[in-house]
Amino acid sequence: MKRYMLNNDFKGIKKGTEFFLIAESEFIGVKEFVLRTKDLFIRISINERELLNNFTLLQF
């Protein structure tokens, strides 16, 4: 399972928070990702640009 870390504050979530990639979907060239925090408390749905600009891949 892929793990990501937040690079800077995003949508009220603090920098350094770790997330698991739960789902990845693509519809007519638009990719959408669903991420959950390590404690499974917070769930966010973001597009590819937001993922690339605000998150770093920790583990594949």
SSE layout and pairings?
Layout: E1 3-6, E2 18-27, E3 30-37, E4 43-47, H1 48-54, E5 55-59
Q: Could you give the order of strands across the largest sheet?
A: 4-3-2-1-5
Determine the N-to-C terminus distance.
6 Å
Work out the radius of gyration. 11 Å
Largest beta-sheet details: 5 strands, antiparallel
Return the string of H and E elements.
EEEEHE
The count of strands amounts to 5
**Mean pLDDT metric:** 92
Strand content: over 45%
Quaternary structure classification: single chain
Low-confidence stretches: none
Question: What is the helix content?
Answer: 10-25%
Q: DSSP helix count? A: 1
What is the approximate shape? globular
What structural category do the secondary elements indicate? mainly beta
Outline the structure in words.
- The chain has 60 residues and is mainly beta.
- It is built from one helix and five strands, in the order ββββαβ.
- It has one helix spanning 48-54, and strands spanning 3-6, 18-27, 30-37, 43-47, 55-59.
- It has a five-stranded antiparallel β-sheet.
- The chain starts with a strand and ends with a strand.
- The mean pLDDT is 92.
List keywords for this structure.
single chain, 60 residues, 5-stranded antiparallel sheet, mainly beta, globular, 1 helix
Short description:
The chain is mainly beta and 60 residues long. The chain is built from one helix and five strands.
